[in-house]
Design brief:
mainly beta, 2 helices, Lipocalin
């Protein structure tokens, strides 16, 4: 029995140590979606283009560094007319502010594969402190960081002028993310 445990430990130890630091984002396997209400009806959309710098150490999450840049012009609501409207100055103003940027400031463990993330989110020149929970789901060498980030669109001046009132488009927006990552090549 002791010999079997020793052999298993020797075989599994390199696998466990190898997959603890993730440094490569896999955009084609990742998703960033958002949900909101318009006139009381649930609506959603996605952003199809983002990149960033990613260093996530599951053994020392406090040493992790994460910065994501999301192309606001990559918004996809399923309707070309709505996508074009969102790029206008009243909404994202993507001509003047082409990217939303998230920078993690602290990441702490909340238990096995669970993390509390605090950072800064910048959209449309407005920066706000944010915090949220995330779960790291592993699958072999790859992993997926999954969570939700609730924001208020008014904090970022998304929907100005006649759209600043929240009776048509709600102030609350939930960003759902699933960021696929891998160890460095």
């Amino acid at each position: 029995m002791k010999l079997r445990l020793s052999v298993a430990a020797l075989v599994l130890a390199p696998l466990a140590a190898h997959a603890t630091v993730y440094q490569q984002i896999l955009p084609e396997q990742s998703r960033i979606r958002f949900n909101y209400q318009q006139m009381g009806v649930d609506m959603d959309g996605a952003f199809t283009s983002f990149n960033g710098d990613f260093y996530f150490d599951t053994d020392a999450p406090e040493q992790s560094k994460v910065e994501l840049q999301l192309a606001l012009s990559s918004v996809d609501t399923g309707l070309a007319e709505a996508d074009a409207e969102l790029e206008k100055s009243e909404w994202f103003n993507s001509a003047a502010y082409p990217q939303a940027i998230f920078r993690a400031e602290t990441i702490t463990s909340n238990g096995p594969s669970r993390y509390q993330v605090q950072g800064q989110l910048e959209i449309k020149g407005q920066q706000q402190a944010v915090n949220f929970d995330a779960v790291l789901n592993t699958d072999g060498e790859h992993a997926t960081l999954v969570g939700q980030l609730p924001i208020k669109r008014g904090d970022f001046h998304i929907g100005e002028g006649p759209w600043a009132n929240f009776d048509v488009v709600a102030n609350e927006v939930t960003i759902d993310f699933s960021i696929a990552v891998a160890p460095a090549n």
